[in-house]
Design brief:
The structure holds 2 protein chains of 2 kinds. By secondary structure, chain A is of the alpha/beta class. Chain A is built from 14 helices and 15 strands. In chain A, strands 3-10-9-8-7-4-5-6 form an 8-stranded mixed β-sheet, sandwiched between helices. A 4-stranded antiparallel β-sheet of chain A has the order 11-12-15-14, with helices on one face. Chain A has a two-stranded parallel sheet with strand order 2-13. The chains are: A alpha/beta, B alpha+beta. Chains A and B meet through strand 1, helix 1, helix 12 and helix 13 of A and helix 2, helix 7, strand 7, helix 9 and helix 10 of B. Strand 1 of chain A pairs antiparallel with strand 12 of chain B, so a sheet runs across the interface.
């Protein structure tokens, strides 16, 4: 007899076909165990919040406006909250009007709605390489053809972008949009330089492009510096997404989109189809937090906490990592992007890392094309400093040992970092596995290790 | 109290799952199903995510029996079985020694060969062989000896983690590196062409052989745990003789390791030939997409009855004090 483990298989939409169980996700289930130092998540340190203040805010919302707070709201989000979110944007110098905004369930919903709004299966989207794994998830769930533009210390290499756009134009194609995280990019930790922002906008004009500007970390700059937004440079071309997850708390699931009016209207309709409206209760909590509490001071507190943790991580990396491991020295955000050098595949190494009680995110998760195997992402915002030191020491021991093992196994033919991309066959296509290797130049170490020590 | 009457009563069963093994997630899925199944049979079930407090917990709970829904190291390698024997808590599945023998794939394959069973020709290489003895200089001989394609896998562990099918020499060293992430030794086997079949043996009796046909070709992690990603037939679509040969080989493979109560024997069946044993799993997966529950379904045995039967067997062994046998 034939035994079906999924009797609904014939009923699914085409886009569901690519959704499958993954060994890496299974390993992350182990990484959440308390004995493991996990640099894998992207979690803010919510314990740095003033919980007396949070409690007061929540209680007052219920006491003053309970029935309203627990009622449905409108699809665009509460007008009062949108006014307050304009204050948050203004704090960073980003212009906006409450009417431009759509409140979303975290920034992630903003990315997903934008993908849903623009992407047909097979449409090209250009994105930084590496880029945010959740952004890739939103894009690939709509079957976008994501193509990467390499980065360096100044962010996306816009002249490479210009070449790619020209190539596509010659083929009569145009990407649906360019996805960028211009400030303290996840995972690379770099920011797009000001001249490149101007150039990017110029290219968008020239090729009639939409830009998806994803800005979760702009206010988490260790020096308190802010940079001109793409939205300010080209408000009619930019769909801007931000979130309260890093400046307040991810648990309230409050983000927003600022978009030109025609796009905004489509996004509101799409969101109403998805979930009717954002949670009224948490909208009111965020609104009251911004109205009544010193939220700017809270952001300063997050910044100071993360800056200290980043310093601890960089110091530990400098003290323990073998010589040819490199990383960037982030000026903000939550992440350090590490290049582990030749002969090590970070996706393979994760299993060993978990057994040595430390976890990270392998670099290939941040690429849609199978590259990134020579990199890994470390989060410094969540583990406390002593755990950071402990975890980096474990990781450094592991990488040092893996390096020795690679030399022993490969002999004098240790593959260069990029050669492992798409490397080992993971499916039935053992004979064609190497064809996934693109030879595309991988992102170079953004800042030499010396710069970080 | 005689063991056979004990099971007529409601028991306090600890379902052990989770832990720090690399197969934690799979184990939690198994544990969830087993818990529901045993509760449906009227047992009182306490589900425990195993950690350093396990033995104290078990002492405090005063359980009658421990159901092992653990996969991967410590749960499947004999560690927990020996520990439970020490503290006198009956447990499901094979005993500590059999678990340890099955867990070590090269040792198990050696025992199978000695018992007259067919196993794939293979080579075992340890990290020490590379680090201390210059094995890299001999790696090309593996292909010369066994021929391509080759199957490279960690010498211990389940769920196809760290397993790679290698088509040529250039891909062999990275595959070895990948497998080393899971274990200190790699087992490199000749790739045997044929139908992949899993035979479950419960208390010496075989369930119908399950034929595994992954839609994407290889029975890897995604094919194992994504519902619908693999097509199963039980009994296999091969001849009656081939199915009978598979069942016979499975019984003998378990016997060679002394693996009683439950084990799943994975093998390759090529038309008209003797089955080639791949491995014996003493802590087989019990998730919704796992092979043992599918085999039970094909045999008309409900999952709850299967779980209940394993509890019965655990108590019977405890009653006879055969835990060290």
């Amino acid at each position: 007899m034939r035994l079906d483990t999924d009797p609904y298989l014939q009923h699914y939409a085409d886009r569901v076909g690519g959704l499958s169980a993954s060994a890496i996700r299974a390993l992350f289930a182990v990484a959440s165990r308390p004995e493991i130092v996990s640099f894998a998540g992207g979690m803010p340190d919510t314990s740095a919040l003033d919980f007396d203040a949070v409690t007061e805010v929540v209680a007052s919302v219920l006491a003053d406006d309970g029935p309203t707070a627990l009622q449905y709201g409108i699809g665009q989000g509460r007008p009062e909250l949108r006014e307050r979110l304009i204050d948050v944007m203004a704090h960073e110098g980003v212009p906006g009007h409450p009417d431009d905004l759509v409140v979303t369930v975290g920034g992630q919903q903003g990315l997903e709605l934008t993908a849903k709004c623009f992407v047909n299966p097979g449409d090209i989207v250009l994105a930084e390489g590496p880029t945010y794994v959740g952004g890739l998830g939103a894009l690939t769930s709509h079957r976008a053809d994501v193509r990467h533009v390499p980065m360096d210390a100044d962010g996306m290499q816009v002249e490479v972008l210009a070449d790619r756009l020209d190539e596509l134009a010659r083929d009569g194609r145009r990407p649906k949009f360019v996805y960028t995280i211009p400030n303290h990019q996840n995972p690379a930790g770099v920011s797009l330089s000001i001249p490149r922002r101007h150039r990017l906008v110029e290219l968008a004009e020239q090729h009639d492009l939409v830009i998806l500007e994803d800005n979760p970390y702009g206010l988490i700059d260790f020096a308190g510096e802010t940079r001109v937004s793409l939205r300010e440079l080209a408000p009619e071309r930019v769909v801007y997404v931000s979130t309260m997850s890093k400046t307040f708390a991810p648990g309230v699931r409050t983000g927003w989109i600022a978009a030109p009016a025609p796009i905004r209207d489509k996004l509101v309709l799409l969101r109403e189809a998805a979930d009717l409206c954002p949670a009224h209760f948490t909208q009111m909590v965020v609104e009251r937090w911004l109205e009544t509490q010193p939220w700017q001071a809270q952001i300063e507190r997050f910044r100071a906490t993360y800056q200290h943790r980043a310093e601890v991580m960089l110091e530990a990396l400098g003290a323990h990592m073998p010589p040819d491991v490199t990383w960037n020295a982030p000026g903000g955000g939550l992440f350090v992007w590490v290049s582990v050098g030749d002969g090590i595949d970070t996706a393979d190494l994760l299993a060993k890392a978990v057994q040595h009680r430390v976890a990270y995110v392998p670099g290939d998760g941040f690429y849609a094309d199978g590259s990134g195997h020579g990199h890994l992402r470390l989060n410094f915002s969540y583990p406390p400093p002593e755990r950071i030191r402990e975890g980096i020491e474990r990781l450094a021991t592991l990488i040092t040992d893996e390096r020795e093992l690679a030399r022993a196994v490969y002999g004098d033919r240790v593959p260069a970092a990029g050669d492992l991309d798409g490397g080992r066959p993971s499916g039935s296509d053992a004979t064609t596995s190497r064809s996934r290797a693109t030879g595309r130049p991988d992102m170079p170490p953004v800042v030499a290790r010396e710069a970080s020590s | 109290m005689s063991p056979d009457t004990a099971v007529a009563e409601a028991l306090h069963v600890a379902v052990l799952n989770g832990g720090s093994s690399l197969e934690r997630e799979v184990s939690l899925a198994s544990g969830s199903r087993v818990t529901t199944a045993l509760e449906s049979r009227g047992h009182r079930v306490t589900r425990l995510d195993v950690d350093a407090g396990l033995i104290t917990h078990l002492d405090d709970l005063d359980v009658d029996v421990a159901f092992l829904a653990l996969h991967g190291s410590t749960g499947e390698d004999g560690t927990i079985q020996s520990l439970l024997d020490l503290v006198g808590i009956p447990h499901t599945g094979p005993n500590g020694l059999s678990s340890a023998l099955a867990w070590d794939k090269p040792v198990a394959q050696g025992l199978h060969r000695r018992a007259g069973l067919v196993v794939a020709d293979h080579v075992v290489l340890s990290q020490a062989a590379f680090r201390d003895l210059g094995a890299a200089a001999a790696v090309t001989r593996v292909g010369d000896l066994l021929g391509f394609p080759l199957v490279v896998k960690p010498a211990a562990g389940g769920s196809s983690l760290g397993l790679t099918i290698v088509a040529d020499q250039a891909h062999l060293p990275p595959a070895i590196m990948g497998a080393f992430s899971y274990n200190d030794r790699v087992l490199i086997e000749q790739f045997v062409v044929g139908a992949e079949v899993a035979v479950t043996v419960v208390d010496g009796q075989t369930l119908p052989p399950v034929e595994i046909t992954p839609r994407d070709g290889q029975y890897d992690f995604a094919a194992r745990y994504t519902p619908g990603a693999t097509e199963f037939h039980a009994p296999s679509r091969l001849s009656d003789a081939a199915n009978a040969a598979a069942e016979d080989a499975a019984r003998r493979a378990c016997e060679a390791l002394g693996a009683h109560h439950i084990a799943r024997v994975d093998m390759i069946l090529a038309g008209g030939e003797t089955p080639t044993i791949l491995e014996v799993n003493t802590g087989p997966g019990l998730t919704a997409t796992s092979l043992v529950p599918l085999a039970a379904q094909a045999a008309g045995l409900s999952f709850a009855d299967l779980c209940h039967r394993l509890v019965e067997l655990a108590l019977r062994r405890a009653g006879r004090d055969e835990s060290r046998v």
